[in-house]
Specification:
- Strand 21 and strand 22 form a beta hairpin.
- Helix content is 2%, strand content 35%.
- The strands form nine sheets. A five-stranded antiparallel sheet has the order 11-15-12-13-14, with no helix packed on it. A five-stranded mixed sheet has the order 20-17-25-23-24, with no helix packed on it.
- It is mostly beta strands.
């Protein structure tokens, strides 16, 4: 460090790491210098008169948390370079993953630990730099970042723990931030008839209805990445479950048209709970979109034979899926990219695991904020609503009714797979069906089906072998199905 003289003299370079060298020229040091090392820094350490690293509104010492990572300071953060520690603070590793199988995953997050002292680092142009090489997009309360020879953040505010963000990554990425955990008593204000993205920055998990108990009467919707609570004047709060708000989550709070303005702190009614998060589906793989419509499912008709998962389709395209951990569950329907969704035929598929084929259900009743009770319709999005309630497997008499497929569809499980995978396909009518597997070069690998088939649901197994019964290499393959005048393509991934 500056103004400190070594007690030895040498003409050889010495190996040092996790040191700060600044102003060491001329009479300031003896010997031949030091071996360059990526762990060393050569800038002004910015210390006060007591050699404590500075951390204030204008300066943050570069030696903070830059010491040997195998050593921690008194506050359990990475050691600082030098003999004195900086002010007590916290380190946070923000990790964003890309979901398996290649489907798009959008993270609804907040940043509980930020540097609210040296605030220059909280401008979005600085804060998000560690993510930018692997980032597909980020949204701040409806304002989207724009890429134009670099990321721009129009209308973004300063990064703050109370704010929520939607982040999309093209690969798993982490960024480390040093700062201070948000005050649990921080007050959050909501305007009348407004939608606000709010960060949940408490380290304790809690039920959303407990955390927001004092302002529930001001809210009409609480939307999380995995679940949504919606207030209906007739039914009360829909979507109640045991899922919790957890550290680093973001929720979208929508206040009521009248009497919605309010103020709260997450700690107002703190009743800590063990974290409980919704399980991800394993059979259905759906691309997420920034927004979704909650669809509340009632599966009472299947109480004696409960499926493991339910998938939701619009004209044969998967728009959402859920794990069924009770007779009442929720599907997040991603409909923004579906052309003419108002006229799309909506159907559901029930997955029972390996014990039986996938079952299609096109018979259901629907209710929303715009309908008077439950009605039978296959075009449930014909009227736009904040939410939909669906009772599966029931018609006018309330009894489950078998149903033929409404459209041609194909998918496989498991995916990725090794050594074999089951391809399940549906035909709405009798006719010729052709299913073939191709490699990335477009070369035919295997013909699985080429026959006239009856309407209904069918399965065929591909054991990862070609037409000569030779095992094929690991990698990506494409399944092409032709039936009913349609051609469908589905990606398969073989991992050995």
């Amino acid at each position: 460090m500056n103004n400190r003289r070594p007690i030895y003299s040498t003409t050889s370079l010495i190996d040092v790491g996790y040191c700060c060298w600044y102003g060491n020229t001329g009479s300031n040091y003896f010997g031949g210098g030091y071996t360059p090392d990526a762990t060393n820094i050569a800038v002004n350490p910015c210390l006060d008169t007591n050699y404590i690293p500075l951390w204030n509104s204008t300066t943050r010492s570069p030696v903070i948390d830059k010491g040997d990572p195998s050593i921690t300071d008194h506050d359990n953060t990475t050691s600082d370079i030098g003999a004195k520690c900086a002010v007590t603070h916290k380190q946070e590793d923000y990790t964003f993953t890309q979901s398996s199988g290649g489907s798009q995953e959008i993270h609804w997050v907040c940043f509980p630990v930020i540097d609210d002292v040296y605030t220059a680092d909280n401008e979005p142009e600085v804060f998000f730099v560690p993510l930018e090489n692997n980032m597909d997009g980020i949204i701040d309360n409806g304002h989207e970042a724009v890429y134009n020879n670099g990321w721009l953040y129009p209308n973004f505010g300063t990064v703050d723990p109370t704010r929520g963000y939607k982040v999309t990554m093209n690969s798993t990425t982490s960024m480390d931030k040093s700062g201070f955990l948000a005050d649990p008593d921080t007050k959050i204000s909501l305007a009348n008839n407004s939608t606000t993205w709010v960060g949940y920055f408490l380290e304790e998990s809690q039920q959303p209805t407990s955390a927001l108990a004092d302002v529930l009467d001001n809210l009409q919707q609480i939307q999380h990445h995995d679940w949504t609570l919606t207030y209906d004047p007739l039914w009360g709060w829909l979507g109640l479950s045991s899922y919790t708000l957890n550290y680093g989550d973001m929720v979208i709070l929508t206040t009521r048209t009248t009497g919605g303005a309010c103020e709260f702190a997450w700690s107002d009614n703190l009743i800590p709970e063990d974290p409980k998060m919704k399980k991800a589906t394993s059979y259905f793989a759906c691309n997420e979109e920034p927004d979704y419509v909650p669809v509340y499912l009632n599966l009472s008709a299947y109480n004696e034979n409960m499926p493991q998962e339910v998938g939701m389709y619009a004209d044969g395209t998967l728009i959402g899926a859920t794990v069924t951990d009770s007779v009442e569950t929720q599907i997040n329907a991603y409909v923004d990219e579906i052309e003419d969704i108002e006229n799309a035929e909506i159907s559901f598929e029930l997955y029972y695991g390996q014990r039986s084929p996938v079952e299609q259900c096109g018979l259901y009743t629907v209710s929303s904020e715009l309908t008077d009770g439950f009605v039978t319709t296959s075009k449930m999005f014909a009227t736009k609503s904040r939410y939909y309630m669906v009772t599966l497997g029931e018609g006018g008499n309330g009894e489950p009714v078998p149903d033929l497929p409404k459209t041609v569809s194909v998918r496989n499980y498991p995916n990725p797979f090794n050594p074999e995978t089951t391809i399940s396909y549906a035909l709405p009518q009798d006719g010729q069906a052709v299913i073939k597997v191709y490699n990335l070069r477009g070369q035919l690998v295997k013909t699985l089906v080429n026959d006239r088939m009856e309407a209904g649901y069918h399965d065929v197994v591909w054991a990862g072998r070609d037409e000569n019964n030779k095992s094929v290499a690991s990698g990506i393959y494409f399944l092409r199905m032709q039936a009913g005048g349609k051609t469908l393509t589905h990606k398969l991934m073989l991992l050995k």
